[in-house]
Amino acid sequence: MTSISKIAEMANVSKMTVSNVINKKYSKVSKKTRERIEKILEETNYTPNLFARTLKSNESKIIMLAIPQTMENDPYKNKAFNNPFYGELINSIEYNLRKSGYFFMFRFINGHEVLQKLIINWNIDGVIVLGAIKHEMDTIFKDIKVPSVFLDSYIDTDDKDVIVTDDEQGGFIATEHLIKSGRRKIGIVVSSLKDIGVASKRYYGYKKALKKYQLPFDSKKVFEGFPSLEFGNQIGQYIKEHKERFDALFVYSDIMALSMINGFKNHGIKVPEEVAVIGFDGLYIGELSEPKLTTVKQDITLKGEKAVNLLLSKLNGQSVSAEHHYLPVELVIRESV
Q1: Neighbours of 5 (CB within 10 A)
Q2: How far apart are CA 323 and CA 326, in angstroms?
Q3: Which domain holds residue 147?
């Protein structure tokens, strides 16, 4: 196998210069020299010894995406990727890590020991955490020893790097759109409201819109559950039996909104003629449904990109103070309202 020394000899440069090109430290190498070295690397089919590099630098170039999965009563915990949200976010994170010369590891996490062992055994350089709630912050993620960024995690602290969508505003504009479309008997479908998180923030936005337009809040119009066809059917059955109480639903995620539409169809409820439905996320599958799903769109690709950039800025020493970022949302009007 061709060595760095041989590459340096062929390019008439130092081994350090070759190493800088391999590690994508382009600011230290002229464009002409970089292109010459890259051509030689390609021609010789050079493959770096990652294990040796890790031992020497104490850097693995591995970043882990950790998703807490601590709800033991979740019957769909082995079907999480039925939701395309994960695919879009993971694609963005992996792509942006790859561009910067890093490798991607993914794991659902259910315990502090599991996380710590992964970080130590794989020499993880940094962690991106998705959707942690308070008790998980107090246990699983309380003392991560490597740089970390928290996505969709509402953390009451100033010493963590956090990126969230403006979920409360999203819940507000979704409900407001239903109201402005002439709906007055609006229900909401969420996951658990037990902890402060994405679902509860969107729920707060829903209640805020009702209050602004002087519509009564009815706790019997709040449905909590896991996204599934079964849950959609249950809601469809309930609303069929209480049609006089509903003319719209704000559903906190697109995948759950589509299950609601399917449940309505199964029970002969017309969307949007009898009950309008609006989702949240802006997933591509919303355009494939019948009717096409009106939704509040968040930029999932941008969220992944910002997470990577923020984490790498910590690893590179470019940012030392904690940062909090709120990403905007926008209403996408289609056919379900």
Answers
A1: 10
A2: 10
A3: 62-165+300-328
